[in-house]
Amino acid sequence: MDKAPLLQVRDLSIGFGKGTPIISNISFNVAAGETVALVGESGSGKTVTCKAILRILSANAKIHSGTVIFNPGDGELELISMPERKLRELRGDQISMIFQEPMHSLSPLHRIGAQVSEVLCLHRGHRKKSAKKLVLEKFERVGFPDPERVYRSYPFELSGGMRQRAMIAMAMIAKPDLLIADEPTTALDVTTQAQILSLIKDLQAETGMAVILVTHDLGVVANTADRVVVMRNGRIMEAGSVAEILDHPKHGYTKKLIDAAPAIPHEAEPSRARQIDDPILQLENVSKSFDLRGGMFSKRGEVVRAVQGVDITVERGKTFAVVGESGSGKSTCAKIALGAASPDPGGVIRFWPAKSAPPLEVQSLDPTAKRAFQRQAQMVFQDPYGSLSPRMQVIDILTEPLEIHEIGTRSERRDRAVELLEQVDLDPAMLRRFPHAFSGGQRQRLSIARALALEPKLLVCDEPTSALDLSVQMQVLELLEDIRETLGLSYLFISHDLAVVSRIANEVAVMRRGQIVEQAAPDILFSAPKHPYTKALIAACLEPSVEQKIDLDAVAIGAGDPETWPEEFAFQASEVPPLTETEPGHLVRIQI
Hints:
Blueprint: E1 7-16, E2 23-30, E3 35-39, H1 46-54, E4 61-70, E5 77-78, H2 84-90, E6 95-98, H3 102-105, H4 112-123, H5 128-141, H6 147-152, H7 160-172, E7 178-182, H8 190-207, E8 210-215, H9 218-224, E9 227-232, E10 235-241, H10 242-247, H11 252-260, E11 279-291, E12 303-315, E13 319-323, H12 330-337, E14 348-351, E15 360-361, H13 367-376, E16 377-380, H14 394-404, H15 410-423, H16 440-452, E17 458-462, H17 470-487, E18 490-495, H18 498-504, E19 507-512, E20 515-520, H19 522-527, H20 532-539, H21 552-559, E21 579-583, E22 586-589
């Protein structure tokens, strides 16, 4: 007789307020030790379904029908009707959950160690000393190089990847039978994502727990899941094994998700010299240092070199991309390019308003001249939720730059707002709406429209698609490409996603520790990388194919400390290999 599933979700329907259910008749099983992926775009109902399993829905949510049966081996438990007191005993103990944004899930007022220890004290009856011993062991297991330091730290003192590791430690400390992981890697760099996914798989193999993985990334699914449940608008579109779903999808929506996943090129054209006849932006010998004022983990007066000797030239009408992980210095370069931050002495930023026109040296402009320059160079930010004022209507958001620069009459500004909405494929009838009424993709289109208001010649795009679902991401990339061709714009494009960059860029520079370590055209760079860090980024890219698995060895080598790279690439104290043209148009930081 077959063993009963660990979890059975049957005919689950959920609504909000008095409205009709937005989750309709969801059913799936999870076997012990199995990983089941819930896949779909934002709004498909994945997270709501998982929260219903633990009954942690918002106050206005209502479970209309359905059952959730949990069978850890000592008898079936029906979670929907279970008394709250008994359910609290299960949460964090036999069933744990990792949330998408650890900064929102961890208390900012309590140290990390105390928050993780609390699980053992509540569910296992440990005292503080014995709990700390087990927590430090788990911290070491999840990859913290200094568990004691992390134990004493507050969440804001850790990076995003470290906070997510702390959340995994908290979820795993009681050795649950079922782990629900809600987009656990969405906000992480690709190498950190690879390490986190590998960590979850290793811990799963050790403890035999089952995993429900919530994601919109089919590359993550291909590398981690056994079975897939595809959701859209609160309904299941398709379900089956990973191989069945990814290799032979039946539903049109599943095919759409797979087609929307960007892929890096695997074939290169011959190397070719890069010749720039019409530059629009140039960063020459740009460095940026910050003096730390001291803190728990830094010495007073310590200097951090965020950017070191960077040279970038953006060709008019083209896209120059800078890729790298958090802390690599790419966003600092973007701020310097726009004059929002000053480079260290010796660095030069040149901007050519028109072909053959004399360049402006941005770092030397007075406030009036810099304001005029910034009309021609605008930024599209990473977070469309944070970059638009929630208190302003769309018409005010789009006309504010025109008012600041005293351009046009009130009527002309309104006409310009209508024109901008049409340029980004939004309905002009949306002018009187507030940002909260828009989806993430629509908000990013609004951000792009605002950046275009002053008719700039250069856009600096700082991770403009990282917060979006794959299909929405593809739509925004297509929009950016269309606008570039239609308006003749030039882009400095900042990203950590190599697949996105390969789609839109004409030239790519890879940054690590504030320095460019490799640079070439995307097809050359991604199909024939030379630097170990570039190889690590490529190895960590997940494609929606069961044949393409993470190469953790390559990730580990390239993502490690630059001092541990192979000798010809290694950074040794103040000695760093030069950026050398190893082939026409292909630059590598290597000691030859």
